[in-house]
Amino acid sequence: MIGRLAGRLILRAGDHVMIDVGGVGYVVFVSERTLATLPGTGEAVALYTDLLVREDLLQLFGFLTPVEKEWHRLLMSVQGIGAKASMAILGALGADGVSRAIALGDMAAIKAAPGVGPKIAQRVVIELKDKAPALMAMGTTSAVPPDPDAVIAPDTVATPAAPAPMANAQAEALSALSNLGYAPADASRAVAEAAGEGAADTAALIRAALKRLAPA
Question: Where is this region: Domain III (predicted)?
Answer without folding.
Answer: 167-216
